[in-house]
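Below is one such protein, fold included:
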Amino acid sequence: MIRPRPARWFEILAARDDAALAIEALAGTGAVELEAAPASGLPESLADLKPRLSEFAELALRYRAYWPTDGLAPSPFPEPPARTLDRCLDRVRAWAQDAEPLIQRLQAGAAEHVMLERWRRVFRALAGSAIDLARTATAGPLVRVRLYVFPPETDPAIPPRLLLRQFVEDGELHALAVGTGEELAQLAQQAASLKGHVHDMPTWLVTDMARNEAYIDARITALGAEDAALRRDLAALHEQHRMREALGNAWRMQWLVANVRALEAGELFCRITGWTSDLPGRTLAHAIDRSGARAILHFPQAPGGAAPPLLLANPGWARPFEVFSRALGMPSRDEADPAVLLAIAVPLMFGYMFGDIGQGAVIAVAGLLLQRRWPLARLFIAGGVAAMMFGFLFGSVFSLHLVHPLWLTPLADPLTVLLVPLAGGGVLMTIGLALRAVEAHWRGDFAVWLATDAGLIAVYIGLLAATLWPGGFVVAAAGALVFCGGHAWHAGRALAALPALGELAERTLQILINTLSFARVGAFALAHAGLSSAIVALMTATDSTIAAAVILVVGNVVVIVLEGLVVSIQTTRLVLFEFFTRFLVAEGRMFRPLPLPPSLLQETTR
């Protein structure tokens, strides 16, 4: 369970024209990473698609907003991909020719709708003004009126002879300007340089603002009806030109060329190879059978020299804690995956620093609510439950001592609160050293480890035991002899014991310092208890029940947010920089499955 497993090599022999269908079916499993022979390249049948896909991308840039997004149904592939894509492009071009007038009317209606809403806001901003907007619309020819809109936080230089009425609406500076054509042109240049806009006064303006509002309402209603009619016409064009099938095929081809770097292909057949996380192979076989592709799947031995991607084999409750090792990379085949250990150690450290029943419950509930949108929130479920457990041990409920502590009150016995995490850190460091022994066994170097690094464990455990038992120094001395003697034996010369002694001193000092770092767990537990005590002191200092309740609520919110962040950072630091340095290098290759094809992505989104 703690050793990563290599992915399984698979090979598929498929009819060349069915290769895209087979690869799409494989990607739908989420269990395939393609890898072709080093000398392979993209088959000519797929390489020829690139110019056609470039044309499709240009069409998408112009028309994608008006294409159907649901019900895309790519056709089966009993023909060369290039021929299918040519048919797609023919349909899209024909659709574009018929749809262009409708799209132009839709865009014009949308632009008019935006302008009507803008003028509605302008009228409301000028509601108390004496300006007769109807007369501004007919001003000229010497003096004219324009509305200028500037982006937020811009400061245009106004020509001195212009008459202005300025106001801010939706964060934008609006300026109703009166002046000659030359003066207005100068302001228009500034608006363009500042990415603003210039608008002529509408010809439909009248003096009565109520009639202007009524005109806007009526016109927006008419534009809505026209928009609905135009979109129905577009929907009819989608069916007429079979756009859902054409787009489904085109998106499939675009996905294929973007994600398939190389394939071995001949005139009739194509060889698809790679790695799968479906070790029994049943999911892949079912996907190929269901796709209808003419293909044969088998699982031979991987080619010599191939480096398989690795898979972590953790139970569901431990998988969220894989994020810690993945922060460094991927454990190699001969490195231990610590996720199961972290599923115990991380919540204990988090809960110890955050020991409170009520606050732990809030964190656990937040994790439950957020886990679908933010998978990392699952860590807070375990952390919150652990915080509740330590809350019972410390007797704290939302910073109040409402229950009798099952163990101790942190501020009443601070030394014990500091020493317990040190002992726990010693256990965790010893486990890290033991994992190094397991890794040596996997590599076939256990005899070397036993003659060398086994002595380091004895030195470390002996020094820790010496704090309570003087005989620990004897154990440490014996471990030092084993470490130095083992290095001398392994090197085949006695003088090798001298540099080994220096190495032992350095590594022992380092691991002792790492162990001392776990004192911060106790320090933060005391800091948490101190903040809780401060909240209680503020509550008792007021005579108002309402004020006391506010202090309790606000204080707990501050503690949960502030300490939640700090405690999470400290826990991560202890794991990455103290525990992992004992055994984890993370030089493995991560399994990276093909992204979902467009057809399945559409279903997932829906």
